[in-house]
Amino acid sequence: MTDSPAVWASHLRKRYKKRVAVDGVSFTVGRGEVLGLLGPNGAGKTSVIKMMLGLVRPDAGEVMLLGRPNTDPRSRERVGYLPELFRYQPWLSADEVLALHVRLAGVKISGSDRRESLGLVGLADRAKDRVGGFSKGMQQRLGLAVALVARPELVVLDEPTSALDPLGRADVRDLLLSLKERDVAVLLNSHLIGEVERVCDRVVILDRGRVAAAGTLPELLGRRELRLVLTNVTAEAAALLEPFAREGDHYTVTLPDDVPALIADLVKLGVRVHAVEPARVSLEERLLDILRTQPEEL
Ligand SMILES: Nc1ncnc2c1ncn2[C@@H]1O[C@H](COP(=O)(O)OP(=O)(O)OP(=O)(O)O)[C@@H](O)[C@H]1O
């Protein structure tokens, strides 16, 4: 079963009363792949995650988790989940919360492995402290430890860094990269686009319940650009740059095959070249582009 994808979701659909929250969403997450789920508020990301994990019943569609239909409880044995809204038993210590989840998962994980999980999320010295006294960020770290403790093959993280400080976010990024190295698949729902851009192999962009775009980062960000700072740009030189976007002396053009040749031609025409910088559209720019060009009524 290890050659089946970690997640295979096909044509998921969910309506809440009159509101269609998810409308025909399909995607896969490969083994060891980190898939980012992006989209504006209310796009349907959490609904997709909940249907995927069997927490919400879809109106239509199917899901296979780690090679088993998600209607089979065994499909979730090797799945770790950090929900968007988390709350752990305030009267338990961090270690007791982990021990409880290990028992619920029905796996054998030793006390030292539990401590290792707490160490991974920076809570090693708080194992015996009651969760009720934890800050929100510490509770989120604990949630990550809960998601990881039972050695999952798939980890589903719904906004895992919403309560974390910048250092905590960097820790989570490292954690995600180490999961990837261990061939653990990750589905990451995050509004922090920079985070998604840094760790995800592939991205699915949802808008109003539908997949607006999907692909690897190079596929989504394919358009490469060259940014130049130029003065003395004559009409003849400008023709060489077409099509371009201009802000003052800053010109953005499609990346040409031969950058030195373009620069040499510009210089020959008397243009003064102050800076040349190849650039790629950021995921944020691309996301806004995609969402703005979506038809109003889908
Ligand atoms: N239990 C529910 N009852 C009624 N409507 C719901 C329920 N859960 C979600 N919805 C609706 O479904 C739509 C999608 O919500 P969902 O929480 O999946 O979006 P999201 O992309 O995760 O949003 P956010 O980024 O704000 O967390 C929204 O219009 C929401 O109001």
TrEMBL record:
Family: Belongs to the ABC transporter superfamily.
PROSITE patterns on file: ABC_TRANSPORTER_1, ABC_TRANSPORTER_2
UniProt-recorded Gene Ontology molecular function terms: ATP binding
Statement: the UniProt record of this protein carries the keyword Secreted: no
Taxonomic superkingdom: Bacteria
Gene3D superfamilies assigned: P-loop containing nucleotide triphosphate hydrolases
Native organism: Actinoplanes sandaracinus
Keywords from the UniProt entry: ATP-binding, Nucleotide-binding, Transport
Domain ABC transporter as annotated: residue spans: 7-233
Protein name from the UniProt record: ABC transporter ATP-binding protein
InterPro entries recorded: AAA+_ATPase, ABC_transporter-like_ATP-bd, ABC_transporter-like_CS, P-loop_NTPase
Membrane listed as a keyword: no
